Amino acid sequence: MVHVNGDNKSDSLIQVRSLFKTYTRGNESIEVLKNLNLDIDRGEFVAFMGPSGSGKTTLLNLIGGLDLPTSGSIVVDNDEITGISGSKLTDWRARHVGFIFQLYNLIPVLTAFQNVELPLLLTGLSKAQRRDHVEAALSIVGLEDRMHHFPRQLSGGQEQRTAIARAIVSDPTFLLCDEPTGDLDRTSANEILELLSRLVEDFNKTILMVTHDPAAACQAHITLHLEKGVLIESSKVVCE
Amino acid sequence: MAIPFQYNLRSVIERWTSTIVAVVSIAGVVAVFIAVLALAHGFQKTLVSSGSPQNVIMLRGGATSEMESAVSLDQIRILQDIDGIERSSQGLPLVSSEVVVVAAFPMKSTGTDANAQVRGVSEDVLQVRDNIRIIEGRFLNPGLNELVVGSRASQLYSGFQLGNTVLFGGSSWVVAGVFDAGGSAFDSEIWCDANNLNQTYKRPQNIFQSVTARLTSEDAFESFKNSVSTDPQLTLSVEREIDFYAKQSESVAILIRVLGFLVASVMAVGAIFGAINTMYSAVSARSVEIATLRALGFRTRHIIISFVTESILISLIGGVVGILLVLPINNSAASTMNWQSFSQLSFSFMITPEFMLEGMLFAVLMGFLGGLFPAVRASRVPIVTALRGL
After folding, report:
1. Whole-prediction pTM
2. Is residue B96 part of a domain?
3. How many CB pairs under 8 A join A and B?
């Protein structure tokens, strides 16, 4: 379930309370998020939509521990992450968050295998264990036959699937996708969205996805609409 | 575990143009750095090897070089009877009373005149300095205007072929032979009879500038020195020949090092900035990659170690290239003014494994400094900003 009124007392996986984020540019303060409340349960696939500058990516960055809020709290799996910073937050990200970016953000000089292996280098797994995990992740995204290819030798869709394998390889608590289909053609985009849906259905993954694409949003269980830093509506976008 | 080394290795190869720029600048510094060390070492080694531990050299008390020294024949006669001096097969003390002058001769390489040290020696000099051997012709005949020329001097100056007549000091001299002094400073000298040289330069016949004696053993030095020092008729300084030449080499070697290091330091600053620039551009080009790695959970220290490693990798390549650039000059001849004798001293560049190691360490230091600042900067840019490629 997803709640946006902030009065949910349940043990939701992600609990956002009275969240504010203000950027200061010179003498000007820009309030990007205003008193935002949100509860997301495990296994949910949530899409965030809204015009540019509405605060979608900022919200994703805050929940993913890439940025700190001006005020308010974010609790993930009973960990209050707004109170930690620096290396502890870095370690928390490594354990709990899988990131999927619009432009894939693969390391061009590393193979698909090595890219997927990166998060595992921060764990205590042996080389053999890491290999097993990487092969399993690449197999889930259907790229087991491309594991020794470099990103430039892959199509956009394959690159994004590699990025998804990298995001899931360490079995994080949830996945954050920032416009995961924004740079793909329709066919590739649909493949990626099907893959994300499968991760939710088959592996009970929790996914938070920012998108401008209604075709992407319709794959999510629920779509939250933001405007000027405020959650204004939650709905289920129906696929055409 | 850190960011894989392959990331750095492949990045260096991927950005080969900027890598080459950094490698060339670091290689240049390392080459100059090693060349300076080899130059100073070659100079010093040449002078130091001129001395023998079994020989003593005596100058007027207070004189720091032969040019400013004077030893009278009376003093030499007293010296010859002191215990500890080796005797020849004829029972004569092995002592060479010597005078030095500086004369200008045309250099083969440029045709311009350069100063050479001309040394007037005693007839037993080859027994006193037993590491010197005649390699062409014969030794000079005492009392005649004949010369024997050091092997390097014969290559450095024109006109010193066997049998040639050479003019200097208003007299003509015949080249009787060429000697090899094992690469020491004597190889740059021209020798003749000491008395003839005094006559030619209208110097007093009974005054010499230095006396070199061969002792019975190295251990005889202390007692010999003590005997000379306590004799009130002898106001002479006594030094092992090897120490004397070591001191002689010091000032020029220091000068070479200081000037050389000055040049190397200026170049090093340039190379460090080159490395910094390379690494800054590497960081700037990969700001999204770095932010991604940080988002994935790699810590600040992982980023810093990775980029410093990359910079050191480049500097190591630069160091190796620098060594390869400088190696061909090993053992090649050079000559410079020896300010102690105001004459040209010919010597060889001497590159040792220690210098190569020091060159590599210097390269690593440049790489470390060049990589550190960009790496620290890369690890401090807010992830969210860097992910947007800003």
Report:
1. 0.72
2. yes
3. 65
